[in-house]
Design a protein that fits this description.
Alpha-Beta Plaits, seven-stranded mixed beta sheet, elongated, alpha/beta, SAM-dependent MTase RsmB/NOP-type domain-containing protein, 5 domains, about 725 residues, Rossmann fold, SAM-dependent_MTases_sf, about 45% helix, NSUN7
């Protein structure tokens, strides 16, 4: 009976397993001896002799202690800034390289595990899949070979994080895992596992490039000559000028970036653990993130600008320090202001103090959220805009994560299979809003002359589209502002004319009112052209030449970065010459000799602007409307009673011919010294008297032809049309 029940139960379990498509149970493995257990990946003393079965980011090998630190990173709740302590920067970079490799290969590792129904058989490992990927990757890295026994401190770290259970489970399945990996590789026709990766996750650098250490000279601690001598004392010689490629134990300076070095030591640890690096004389960094500061520093020299420089975000404290190094030798630049540090402000200040940087001030406030009343940007003349972006074209994500203080989130983001080809809407929209707000705030300050916009994205919506859209929108906004000011000035001018042009009550009683048909009061057509100062308009310009001795030396696509140079169409330099010109324009130095004494008010300036706009509009009008616009301008330009009363210009030294003639004849005019094409004779005294009576008292209609009336303006209105004189007298 018992045997029959067991057979029935086995059939039920088999049917259920077949229905659920579960694999058959594996036979129980015999207990292995201690000698067959997995051991240390590689000891620190033998790290340089390790065998690379797959390509590693940065070409670094790791120890079992690094595995424990990597497990802590992957298990951290705050992936943006994990609280894992490292002994030095080299250990930090080594661990992050391991984590980046695990995240790159996670899709392949996960596929191999799913082929063996690993998480179905061991469901309690599903929530700790990152640790399974980590130890599986290390097992494949060892070619499924043995490891040395764990040291005591590493043993304790493994036990505290529960790595032993995962490690032993994978070790028991090592043969099946190796076979599954081989099937995946053979099925795709790939001779190595790296060929199965998506294209954006493949490392294209050669093994020779992985041995090169890049960094810049910290001139707050040393200088270029002393650093060169120190490298030579270590046996690292400068590369001859006739060679381009680095050789072991050589170094060279970068052809684009000032004080930037490329070093190939015989052993990486020799340089990393030297006093040059420990004493912060050489700061290790990837060159891609130094291009933006180098462009700004070169533009400041080319444009000869004076003032302060701002950086909108603290993406990397190392890049911020390099920017400060480039600006310290420019006597015209006061300081560097860096925003967006947040709660990392104290850490950034501490890092700058360690490097000896003294020309930089860090702010916790967000650049785009600064209030308009804030005076912190008063003397800023240039901005390096580095808002957050997708970083989808970064060539060295590990260096970016390390430079940001250990940003694991950026590694998780960049290793997403679909993110490089199609950005997630909610994720990229947040970046786009921040980028747009940052550029608008930087371009809204009148004293800021140019903005350098830098991203590390391959998406056009973050690069060209963002910049061109912002420049067009801000230029249109400037046109709308000037148009509104012009309309306001025209309205105030017309109100002023109506208010001051009405005669007093007594004058109205003495002079009879004559109603004149105002045929000249034409409606103002819509303005088609607005005169905008070039200092209020922006344009996209070419980047400066960072390497005069080379052609096409800056390939931004190959560098994995995008840089845009946005500047005002007319650069204003706040130098002494400009200040003197402004003071002279405002009359602070007094009125020059032989210059008419005039009283200029704000309304006068606005009236001049209105007339200039009308003149520009008249040039754009069609031929049939030009006469109307001319009449419109004559009517607006006509002097009012208030303007004539305020007119205190000195009289002209030219004698009036009629006044001279009157004096020659004892004030009794006999004839007027003017002739007309219609008569070819001079006016008689009676005709002149009648004409003066017509102009200065009540007009006598149909006495003289219109040409005579129009061609002889009297005295004060010599340059004014008769219609203006008659309108004024009435």
């Amino acid at each position: 009976m018992g045997v029959r029940d067991d057979a029935k139960g086995n059939r039920l379990r088999h049917a259920l397993r077949k229905l659920l498509k579960m694999p058959a149970p594996w036979p129980e493995a015999a207990e292995e001896t201690e000698a067959k257990r997995p051991r240390v990946s590689v000891t620190p003393t033998k790290r340089h002799d390790c065998r690379r079965s797959i390509q590693s980011a940065g070409g670094l090998c790791w120890s079992s202690a690094d595995l424990a630190l990597a497990a802590s990173l992957l298990e951290t709740p705050n992936a943006r800034f994990p609280t894992v302590t490292f002994a030095n920067q080299e250990e930090k970079r080594r661990v992050f390289s391991l984590v980046y490799d695990v995240l790159r290969y996670k899709s392949i590792l996960n596929q191999a595990l799913n082929d063996l129904y690993f998480f179905v058989r061991y469901p309690h490992f599903k929530e700790r899949c990152h640790l399974v990927w980590l130890l599986f990757f290390d097992l494949y890295k060892r070619d499924f070979a043995l490891r040395d026994p764990l040291e005591s401190d590493v043993e304790a770290a493994f036990a505290s994080q529960g790595l032993h259970e995962v490690d032993e489970t994978l070790w028991q399945l090592r043969v099946k895992l190796a076979a599954t990996i081989s099937r995946l590789r053979i099925k795709s026709g790939a001779h190595s596992l790296s060929k199965l990766l998506p294209r954006h996750l493949r490392i294209t650098r050669s093994a020779l490039e992985e041995n090169i250490v890049t960094g810049w000279i910290n001139i707050f601690k040393t200088n270029v000559n002393d650093t060169s001598y120190s490298l030579q004392d270590m046996g690292i010689m400068p590369l001859p000028r006739d060679r381009d490629l680095l050789e072991p134990s050589t170094f060279k300076t970068d052809h684009l970036l000032p004080r930037f070095l490329h070093i190939m030591p015989s052993l990486r640890e020799d340089l990393v653990e030297s006093t040059l690096v420990k004493d912060n004389h050489i700061i290790m960094q990837e060159r891609t993130f130094c291009l933006g500061p180098a462009v700004v520093a070169q533009l400041l020299k080319d444009l000869s600008l004076s003032g302060k420089v701002a950086q909108t975000h603290v993406n990397s404290p190392i890049t911020m320090a390099y920017f400060a190094n480039l600006l310290v030798n420019n006597d015209k630049i006061d300081s560097l202001l860096v925003f967006g540090a947040g709660y990392r402000k104290e850490a950034c200040d501490q890092y700058l103090r360690e490097l000896g940087v003294k020309n930089t001030r860090v702010y916790a406030e967000n650049f785009a959220s600064l209030s308009p009343e804030s005076r912190v940007l008063d003397n800023v003349i240039a901005v390096l805009a580095t808002p957050p972006n997708t970083n989808s074209s970064v060539t060295d994500p590990v260096d970016l994560a390390v430079a940001r203080g250990g940003d694991l989130q950026i590694l998780q983001q960049l290793t997403d299979d679909d993110f490089a080809s199609t950005p997630r809407g909610d994720h990229i929209n947040k970046f786009l809003v921040d980028q747009r707000d940052t550029l608008r705030r930087a371009m809204s300050k009148p004293q800021i002359q140019f903005v350098v916009y830098e991203t590390h994205s391959r998406f056009t919506c973050e690069n060209e589209e963002m910049v061109t859209t912002l420049v067009t929108d801000l230029n249109n906004y400037a046109a709308e502002v000037h148009l509104e000011e012009l309309r306001r000035a025209q309205g105030e001018s017309q109100e002023k004319e109506r208010g001051t042009g009405e005669p007093a009550a007594e004058a109205q009683a003495e002079v009879p009112v004559v109603k004149i048909e105002d045929d000249l009061s034409l409606p103002i057509p819509p303005l088609q052209t607005v005169v905008i100062p070039p200092t209020d308009l922006f344009e996209l310009a070419d980047l400066p030449n960072l390497c005069p001795n080379y052609e096409n030396c800056l390939d931004l696509v190959a560098e994995g970065t995008y840089i845009a140079f946005i500047k005002r169409k007319e650069i204003t330099r706040l130098d002494p010459k400009y200040m003197i010109q402004m003071a002279e324009a405002r009359g602070l130095f007094g009125r020059p000799e032989n210059s008419p004494k005039t009283k200029t008010t704000g309304q006068t300036a606005r009236a001049k602007a209105a007339l200039a706009a009308l003149q520009a509009r008249s040039e754009m009008m069609e031929e049939k409307n030009k006469a109307k616009v001319k009449v419109e301008m004559d009517r607006i330009a006509a002097p009012t009673r208030a303007s004539l009363l305020r007119d205190i210009r000195p009289p002209s030294t030219r004698d009036c011919p009629r006044y001279t003639h009157h004096l020659a004849h004892d004030g009794t005019p006999s004839y007027l010294l003017r002739s007309y094409e219609s008569r070819k004779t001079f006016l008689t005294p009676q005709e002149e008297e009648d004409l003066i009576c017509r102009l200065y008292t009540s007009p006598k209609v149909n006495i003289y032809p219109p040409t005579l009336y129009e061609d002889l303006p009297p005295l004060k209105f010599w340059n004014s049309p008769a219609s203006v004189i008659e309108s004024y007298l009435q």
